[in-house]
Amino acid sequence: MDLLAIAENTVKVILILGLPSLLVSMIIGLVISIFQAVTQVSDASLTFVPKLIFVSFFILISLPWIGESVEVYTKELWNLMLIFGEQ
User: Fold this and answer.
1) Total domain count, the chain
2) So what's the pLDDT on residue 84?
3) Fewer C-beta neighbours within 10 Å, C or N terminus of the chain?
């Protein structure tokens, strides 16, 4: 495994871990936008606060999965360093 493959795997892990939070933020933003369009309320904090709450709650719930994924990937990187060090 070369450096480019390691960088590619790192980007994949980052995307896999980050996309669910972004999707939650997008869904909440869409729901709030529809609500604002229906009620004609245009307050900036109306979009920011619910997104902050829901994304924070989602990250808190998914933290064990995120931690496990980072731990597995870190162990994989350490094993690769040991393999490259022996060569």
Assistant:
1) 1
2) 77
3) C
Q: What is the extent of the structural domain holding 10? A: 3-86
Is the confidence at residue 15, as pLDDT, over 90? yes
Q: What is the pLDDT of residues 57-83, one digit of tens each?
A: 999 999 999 999 999 999 999 998 888
pLDDT at 87 over 80: no
Give 33's contacts (C-beta < 8 A, 6+ positions apart): 47
CB contact set of 17 (below 8 Å; sequence gap of 6+) = 66, 69, 70
How many C-alpha atoms does 80 have within 13 Å on its Cβ side? 13
Q: Say which residue the tokens 């997008």 belong to.
A: 26
Contact assessment for residue 85 and residue 14, using Cβ atoms and an 8 Å cutoff? no
What the block records as the tokens of 29 is: 């933003």
Pair of tokens at residue 40: 């004609």
Residue type, 86: E
